[in-house]
Design brief:
The protein has 108 residues and is mainly beta. It has strands at residues 12-23, 29-46, 50-53, 56-59, 62-68, 78-81, 84-93, 99-106. It is 0% helix and 62% strand. The chain is globular, with a radius of gyration of 16 Å.
């Protein structure tokens, strides 16, 4: 039996963003974040992946975020949830293209 995702599970507001490169005027570029949409989502905490950066063992908080499918949201590279930036690791749709499932980690 398929588990339906009721509106009650979509209780969090998230801002979907994409990175936009702009010319800095001296031959380089700046990366700025452009809002795509603010949508309702289900947030599911996950076990963090352990990473080793510069010989420091770090665990970044990880999440799965589920929201209603909209084609424009496929451009999302970062989500903001409660003011916290979350970096998109992967995005997948269900077989009927009703839902988007994002795997994310806290972007530090």
């Amino acid at each position: 039996m398929r588990r339906a995702l009721s509106r009650g599970r979509l209780r969090h507001n998230v801002v979907c963003q994409k990175a936009v490169r702009t010319d800095d005027g001296v031959g380089g570029f700046l990366v700025q974040w452009q809002d795509i949409a603010t949508v309702r989502a289900e947030i599911i905490p996950r076990q963090p992946d352990r990473r080793t950066d510069a010989h420091q063992d770090q665990a970044r908080p990880a999440f799965r975020v589920r929201l209603r499918h909209q084609a424009v949201l496929m451009e999302t590279t970062r989500l903001l949830w409660q003011g916290t930036p979350l970096r998109v690791l992967s995005v997948a749709t269900d077989q009927h293209q009703r839902w988007l499932n994002f795997d994310l980690e806290e972007d530090r």
